[in-house]
Specification:
mainly alpha, 2 strands, 127 residues
Length: 127
């Protein structure tokens, strides 16, 4: 009995998510095909020029934008940011520091502080 090795593939949207890039900004051949696990690994270990450029300058998907701004994805939506942003646009937001961004950063800091407090409390219980 021989085992057949099926190649795992994923949709371009899934691969883009795993790579942390905005799918509509990727090359057409990436968007139209399927990506195997081996191809994804190759893209991660030796990224082509288009991937390096996208990761550096964007446009970035909302999870990446949120992380770069230090807010949640929901915080982005509350701030009216619903589209992908470039690195330049993110830097401008950081410099301008609109009121919504200040508020969302403060909220995110409180969430992190509370999560750390709960983690410490649970660790103390287990000791």
């Amino acid at each position: 009995m021989t085992s057949h090795q099926n190649t795992q593939t994923m949709k371009p949207a899934t691969a883009a998510k795993k790579l942390g890039v905005y799918l509509p900004a990727t090359p057409a051949e990436f968007q139209e095909g399927v990506v195997s696990r081996a191809e994804l690994n190759a893209l991660q270990t030796e990224p082509p020029a288009w991937l390096v450029e996208l990761r550096k300058n964007g446009p970035h998907p909302r999870p990446v934008v949120a992380a770069k701004l230090g807010v949640s994805i929901a915080g982005l939506a509350r701030g009216g940011v619903t589209e992908a942003l470039t690195t330049e646009q993110i830097d401008t937001l950081k410099q301008d520091m609109p009121e919504w961004l200040q508020k969302e950063r403060a909220t995110q800091a409180e969430v992190r502080k509370e999560a750390a407090r709960i983690k410490a409390k649970n660790a103390a219980k287990q000791s």
